[in-house]
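so my prof wants the structure for this chain in the tokens format not the other one, which i didnt know existed until like an hour ago. anyway here's the sequence
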Amino acid sequence: MDKRRPCGRGSGRGPRVVHRKALLEALAEELPINTIRFSSRLTSIEAQSKQSSSLVTLRLEDGTQITAKVLIGCDGVKSVVARWLGLGEVVNSGRSAVRGLAVYPQGHGFKHEMQQFIDVGKRGAFLPLTDKELYWFFTCNSTFKGDVELIRREVVEMHANNFPPAYVDVICHTDPSTLTSASLMFRYPWDVLFGNLSKGTITVAGDAMHPMTPDLGQGGCSALEDAIVLSRHIGGESSAAKAIASYVKERRYRAAGLITASYLSGWILQQDGSGWWIKFIRDFIFFRLLSKKINNVVSFDCGRLPE
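here's what i got, hopefully its the right format
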């Protein structure tokens, strides 16, 4: 097994972890009261053109009907909006992930840096959020089923049994309510490059546009990039349709590149290292030639919000 040094050391860059609840609350606090409608599954979309303007009618599962000038679908990997636009369905990468939050009431004692462990077909890491909490993940080529306790026991006893004791201890300290498992899905990059990412004033963002494997940790980051770029174009263009078109043009190649780089990083790092050909691909082509380019993909400045 290969234990790699903490990510981002000496570069001034690296992963950052934040509670999802804290992020959602920070975003929600910027919106007017009653802007967010909960438990409202989107069932249908109808685009209408009236003279010089376009309107979008949304119908929700509870019977509510909403009319809007612009529709931005941020409804995840199973996006109704993406399907309406005609984007190709997401595909299974053949890998699954388990994620959780470990809690040490007396303090965990780890440095605030990411520790990552790689084995044949397996990858695990943990990263402190606070002095008492750590986020951890584990990815492999298996599919996890059952309740959270069964999944945690399977990871510890069957998959991570040859990982360092510190990593296993982190898993054993997991708050069961935070443990999740899911297949790692992505959209083919050519669907993003050549597919319909918009129609008039309707478009997608985040996982609805560019679901990717988590190997570069860019899923949430790229969604925030989408928001900044989109708001900049909406604030600078003469019409909503032009703003959407400009946004799609700017994000298309960036998103396709992230999907590709994330998939390749995960695939190469988790391959069996015993074959000479995979050693050549991983050690020479990936680490010597591609890793710097991939780091440049991650270190991206999407610009500023409009004043």
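also thought this was worth mentioning. Residues 1-11 have pLDDT under 50 and may be disordered.
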